[in-house]
């Protein structure tokens, strides 16, 4: 079975166009905050931003020991006196007080965040019939995957230090590490995870619709099939053909650049070749280009088989 792609090339590992070593993708002078940054894809994203010379990388998560270990590994790899400062900070995006405390700490330290990577997630029960799920577990998924990400986003956009930052550095980049489950039909795996991630993707698309891309650039993407500590709890390693972590990690760096501004508010797969996709999106004779131009809901959460509908549809002429 072929996997969804908007081009002929399907990547399973990083490639030159998204390499952090590219000058156009440099993150020099920026502070990057990554939720769930202590392990798995979050840790690899931190490595890629360090390769792109980010000035400061903050990794947060619930387990302090894991975060400290991750920060030590990063310092050992990139040097304690290198271009990047690494900060590990305990925090739970499922807890409003914890989120507020995090941003209060950043403000107290005079730290302004330029790039926010929403990577932490609650996976919930796996494989159970939907109507046999526990309501509290369902709501916990939405508390983290929707509520937590929403509060992180509002704190990010409304940073109290923003007025004092030079205008040239005001542009913010928000990366939403999503999942292919938001458009799988029939659905597979955890209903709570897929449904809550779809709900957040829908809300984030609407936030993007109201945001100017040169002020707040928002991109959501499916990182691929990645074998991590979290994945190991639900699936056997030998069952899938796993993707290399370098693909979604380097993709995050590309997505946090003006090179990706034309994807503002949309959902894509890290596997899709960015050059092919950009060529198709800017070609008015190409089906992808037509839909990018004519359908505001293209590559966003909606109803399969129908173009998006706006309020304009119901307005009197």
Automatic annotation (TrEMBL):
GO molecular function: oxidoreductase activity
Keyword DNA-binding: no
Annotated Gene3D superfamilies: NAD(P)-binding Rossmann-like Domain
Keywords: Oxidoreductase
Keyword Oxidoreductase applies: yes
PANTHER family: ALCOHOL DEHYDROGENASE (PTHR42901)
Entry's family note: Belongs to the short-chain dehydrogenases/reductases (SDR) family.
The protein's name: Uncharacterized protein
Protein source organism: Collybiopsis confluens
